[in-house]
Design a protein that fits this description.
Blueprint (H helix, E strand, L loop, with lengths): L2 H52 L1 H6 L13 E6 L9 H16 L6 E6 L1 H9 L3 E6 L8 H16 L5 E11 L2 E10 L3 H11 L24 H78 L1
Parallel strand pairs: 1-2, 1-4, 2-3
Antiparallel strand pairs: 4-5
Helix pairs in contact: 1-6, 1-7, 5-7
Amino acid sequence: MSLRDIKTKIRSVDRTRKVTKAMETVSAVKMRKAQQRALSGRPYARAALSILERLSPSLVTLAHPLTTARPVRRAGLIVVTSDKGLCGVLNAAVLKESERVIATLGLELKNIDLYVFGRKAAEYFGRRGYTLKSKFENISDDVSPSDLERISRDVVRSFEAGEIDAVRVVYTNFKSTFEQEALSHTVLPFSLEQFRDIVAGIVPQKGAYAEARPNPAPRFYTVEPSESEVLGTLLPRLTTVFLYHMLLESKASEHSARMVAMKNASDKSRDLSKALTRVFNKTRQAVITREVSEIVGGIEAMAGN
């Protein structure tokens, strides 16, 4: 490789590092905002669990349509990925978990309705022949209330009508800046235990958003106008809470993963630039040494004559 080629490659690597460094900075700012929104939504999820705990006797004794389990002949799967790449293995982990969930369902492709957030999931499942019931963009950092209400209303209506027998969701749970985990949960049929497990995994143990455990709920409540009417209004809203929180978690995870990926890219490009600079210096020194040797040899040849 000539000196000119090495110098051109060094300049190219330096320009790439400037881009990745800028993307790292932007992702860091977006990550902090996304974390703030995700953490701010966690107390709301905790309050929703408190409501369910108080109504738990009704969930056990009342056969509400949204809490009734039945044999799964057709299922709905909500998958949350990003629209953009450059975020490490984030999307690959979600898609892998989605395939695992589909395998456990044991259904044919035609019996699985997919609701996807993000272009990555839409392209992945579209190429494999799955039925995309709905697909939504996931570019904005804000969760679209209209999209959220639409998908929540659609899955609740389909479940109540018997068109689908179960609804699962796969998303990325934000654990820390350097740790995100692809998780799957059952949204419908609604289960208090499932909701309790979800909230237990998202409430921070310490820090500004940590919450004290609520006092034990009384064992008996008088519900007006009736248990069925209250649950008929409450459960669809809590389904929306499920989805809203999962979208917030996924967005915080996306920006965290992208920031870390861009930081790693910046570090690698810096190391590559240093390695190329050493190669350039060694090559230039070799050229100089060869030229000096040629000049000395020429002088000695002239002196000999």
